[in-house]
Amino acid sequence: MIEANSIIERGAFIGEAADTITLDEAQRHRRRMAMVSDHGIAFLLDLAEARLLREGDAITLSDGRYVVVRAKPEELYAIEGRDAVHLLTLAWQLGNRHLPCQIEAKRILVRRDHVIRDMLLELGAHIHEVEAAFDPVGGAYATPGAAPHSHGHTHGHDHTHSHG
Fold first, then answer.
1. What is the residue-wise DSSP string for 7-28?
2. Full-model pTM
3. One domain for residues 13 and 64
4. What is the pLDDT of residues 61-86, one digit of tens each?
5. Structural domain that includes position 36
6. How many C-beta atoms lie closer than 10 Å to residue 129's C-beta?
7. Where are the beta strands (DSSP E) in 11-112?
8. Compositionally biased, Basic and acidic residues: which spans (predicted)?
9. Are 9 and 67 found together in one domain?
10. Any residues with CB less than 8 A from the CB of 23 and at least 6 apart, and which?
11. Contact 49, 148 (CB under 8 A)
């Protein structure tokens, strides 16, 4: 089976793709999984760490071809506030509930959930049902495209110095 163990981040891929693969946000968060592209290229995604594949990322196949990731539209709420401070307050409420959110300049996108909708309406939010690609913000310790991880690291040198 063809394997894929590296990703070229969106914006960095130059060239022609052999195919695309269209996945919703949950399907795009992967480490290891058998996949089939939109036109039938079967491959095993086998990454070192779980990561969120983003719209426009290119999956490098072991035979030298590339499959470009497309984000499948999902049923979402587009949330708007009365003003910037109100929108920030709504964002804080959503973050307090650990909900994946796509943050934009004038709105926040979240998956549809009637309980969250009712809470947001009580807080004075303006809510519109939309179908759009969902590209939520990563966690506090996530690197671009990666799953959350610990912050431990080494640099190959020490950071000691004298305080003389």
1. EEPTTT--S--SEEEEE-HHHH
2. 0.73
3. yes
4. 999 999 999 999 999 999 999 999 99
5. 2-71
6. 10
7. 19-23, 29-36, 42-52, 58-61, 66-71, 74-80, 102-103, 108-111
8. 155-164
9. yes
10. 53, 69, 70, 71, 72
11. no
